[in-house]
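S.,

Sequence below, as promised.
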Amino acid sequence: MSANKLVLVVDDDPDLVEAISMKLESKNYRVSKAYDGIEAWDRIKEERPDLIILDVMMPRKNGYELCDELKTNPEYQDISIILLTAVGSAVSSTSYTHYDGMNTLADDYIPKPIDLDKLMSMIGEYLS
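The prediction came back faster than expected:
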């Protein structure tokens, strides 16, 4: 079932994108990659992924902005979005909070550092 599902991984950390991508590919998902919100939009228009793994803190366009743009656009609002939130230690130094993560239009979120197995099971649930 998962073989033809396309997952877009969006994060400004290439190592993390690679780690998530390798894990997805090992589960027979097709993977597309982007490293900021602008590039992600291009990928979404080109390929229309089934699910997006979206980092919150990125240059050019952050994950909340992109998520809200997608979820308020009838053409894309049915794409599942899992936000990656670096809450924990970073909360005091940023304007991103756990509350924002819950208050966004995303379908779900997972804190960083990411538990890849937990992420894979979340993806499996959304794409089943």
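The helical segments are 14-26, 37-47, 63-71, 98-103, 116-127.

Coffee later?
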